[in-house]
Amino acid sequence: MWCFEIQSGQFAAQKSITVEVIDFAQQMITDHNIQAKEFDSLAGVKNVSVSKTLPAAKQAIVNRLNGESGYYF
User: Fold this and answer.
1) Does residue 62 belong to any structural domain of this protein?
2) In this structure, is residue 61 part of a structural domain?
3) Which residues form the DUF4142 domain (predicted)?
4) Do 8 and 65 form a contact (C-beta atoms < 8 A)?
5) pLDDT at position 69
6) Does a structural domain hold residue 14?
7) pLDDT of res. 13
8) Which of 5, 40, 44, 70 is deepest in the core (most CB within 10 A)?
């Protein structure tokens, strides 16, 4: 998925050791998946092309998060 919040939420849900963080991450994933589907649908209706790649700055954060675990989440 192209959405930064979904990707970072997935890392947090998978790698955190804190129940509160995992719960929040799951809710963030759910909420942003709903928004992403609505956004994609609206873009289709409006015949607008939407990039499916993250901007470089956001991708750098995702790459960094991929190597973290435990209390970093």
Assistant:
1) yes
2) yes
3) 4-73
4) yes
5) 76
6) yes
7) 92
8) 5
Residue type, 49: S
Q: Is residue 30 part of a domain?
A: yes
Total of domains in the chain:
1
Report the candidate in 10, 6, 15 with the shortest Cα–Cα distance to residue 68. 15
Residue 29: domain span: 4-43+55-66
Tokens of 51: 């990039």
Coil vs helix vs strand at 46: coil
9-54 pLDDT, tens per residue?
998 999 989 999 999 999 999 999 999 999 999 999 999 998 888 9
- Looking up tokens 């956001």 gives 58
Q: Write phi, then psi, for 44 (nearest 5 degrees).
A: -65, -40
Token duo for residue 7: 């990707």
